[in-house]
Each structure stands twice: as structure tokens, then as C-alpha cells.
Specification:
The protein has 145 residues and is mainly α. The protein has two domains: 99 residues, no CATH class; 46 residues, no CATH class. Helix 2 crosses helix 6. It is globular and about 50 Å long.
Length: 145
């Protein structure tokens, strides 16, 4: 998805260009996440269920999984550490930011925090993506890895 998105013409208007660039980076991380899921031997809906109690119960409905498939997947991931999958995802996403120093990555996160809060305020919760609500302090403290 990142390659497809980056192949689109970059908008000239600054906010639209920023949105485009963030979309490329988000999709790059997502592509790495799907690779990490595959290497970990997970099959859907197991990655959703790795979130444990953080997964919204409506994810099953949103994604169209029947009760039996959902329950079997929950049993297969019981006891697995979701942090391992996220760590691999983070490692795969890191090269996208290698051109920036640690200070520049921190500055980027600081500059994007207000945009993240504004977008987060417009999203429905719970949502089909399983995205948790972004608390104002959290957006300000997050850094780009």
C-alpha cells in the first residue's frame, strides 16, 4: 500500500502534501505489520485478538467473523505477547525515518501532535479499525520511532 500511495502525485497544497506524506508512512508501517503478522504465523482474526482486553467487542461484528472462528482464534493467541509483534513492526518501520536524527524525529512528532489530536477528535469510538481514543496528553508525548 505504501508503494501505491507514494506513486500518486504529491499535492502542491501544504496540508494536502502533509496528509499524503503521513499516509505513505502509515501505509509503510502497515505493510511491515502485515509482514510481521505473516512471519509470526498468525492468521486473521488472531492479530485483532492479540490486543486482549483492549480489543473492542464489536471488532468481531465489524470484520464479519462468526462466533466459532472468533473463539478459536482467541484460544490460539492466548498467552502470546502482542509486544513482540509490535516490536517487529516498529523495526520494519524504522528505516522510513532513518533520514532524520533523533532530535528531528522528536520535532516531527511534536509538530504532528496537534494534527493527530484534531483527527482523533473526529473519529468515532469504537471504530472498525480498532484504533483506541488518543488522549490529548498522549499525542503530545508520542514520538516517531
Amino acid at each position: 500500500m505504501a508503494a501505491a500511495q507514494s506513486g500518486l502525485e504529491r499535492p502542491h497544497e501544504p496540508l494536502a502534501a502533509l496528509w499524503h506524506d503521513c499516509t505513505v508512512l502509515r501505509e509503510y508501517r502497515g505493510d511491515g505489520h502485515l509482514a510481521a503478522v505473516a512471519v509470526a504465523g498468525l492468521v486473521w482474526p488472531e492479530p485483532h485478538l492479540l490486543q486482549g482486553s483492549r480489543v473492542d467487542a464489536r471488532q468481531q461484528e465489524y470484520r464479519g467473523w462468526d462466533d466459532r472462528s472468533w473463539q478459536l482464534a482467541a484460544e490460539r493467541v492466548r498467552g502470546r505477547n502482542p509486544r513482540e509483534l509490535e516490536a517487529v513492526t516498529d523495526q520494519l518501520a524504522a528505516p522510513a525515518y532513518d533520514a532524520l536524527s533523533a532530535a528531528e524525529r522528536g520535532q516531527l512528532a511534536k509538530l504532528l501532535a496537534p494534527l493527530a489530536r484534531a483527527v482523533s477528535a473526529q473519529l468515532p469510538y469504537p471504530n472498525a479499525m480498532g484504533l483506541p481514543r488518543l488522549e490529548p496528553a498522549q499525542a503530545a508525548d508520542d514520538t516517531v520511532r
